[in-house]
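Standup notes
- HV: blocked on the assembly model, inputs below
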Amino acid sequence: MHDPLAHLPGYVLRRVSAAVRDDLSARLAPLDLRLSEMSVLMLIAANPDANQSDIGRAVAIKRANMAPLIARLEARRLITRVPIDGRSQGLRLLAAGEALLGEARGLIDAFETALLARVPAVHRAHLLPALTALWQASEGAVQG
Amino acid sequence: MHDPLAHLPGYVLRRVSAAVRDDLSARLAPLDLRLSEMSVLMLIAANPDANQSDIGRAVAIKRANMAPLIARLEARRLITRVPIDGRSQGLRLLAAGEALLGEARGLIDAFETALLARVPAVHRAHLLPALTALWQASEGAVQG
DNA sequence: TATTGTTATACTCTATAACTATA
DNA sequence: TATAGTTATAGAGTATAACAATA
């Protein structure tokens, strides 16, 4: 089977991304954490009292989709909301959220290490800078 | 807003992939072509008379999801089915499919060129090899 | 007027299970 | 028994539109 897509960086990028997503998703499944929930917990931990619109902008999740996500985390007592003004609330991790995020971080570190290990040594140091450049370029073009 | 995810290759990979998907998807929209449809058309063109299960395996689309996709392409007279045996049919592009794919290829080439142009020159040659290594590694682990 | 949070809704992609008919 | 194609269904992520309450 000839694959004319195999030499297209954009296509291979999407294929790798899907595999990476499935892998990490499976690793997080025992914690009952979706990828989107994990990334939001990481952002809340790093930016206590930021509101959910700001967190959503940082992880590229729309306000409309943040509402049910945050509601799930709150219902599980992983996070809490602290009123800031009449229309916005700051988000903070609760003890259970800190604990769960600690476990998640262990899984993520193992995952990221395994990921980089699969890149041939000559190319390894170039991966993150190349991807970061593409990310920043896309932010300017699409979302910024 | 501090982003602790920005240094994780796996996370940045998924963010870039999402941006890349949105970009290419928008470019293909005028042709009324989804990304999955475009990749299937490319594979059919390169492998005439392959059946839809084989095509699906090559592009990582499950048989169950190939059925409606192929039905859409056939309904638009972009492809046709040639009976091979009683249970399988070979797929071929029709004239309209060739024409549409020709237009798509132009858009894809422009897209891939623009993509690589955004990668700093020192990293550029390393991107596809690094991604390809990750792709092959994931095929062995996940799907193979 | 603009922003926060919310609800409703829809689309794309992906996944499993179960069925038929053929090999 | 295994495979090709199909249908039904569900989950995850993402998108827009619209609204109430507040800044």
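- HV (later): unblocked. The radius of gyration of chain A is 18 Å. The longest strand of chain A covers residues 79-83.
- Next: hand off to the docking folks.
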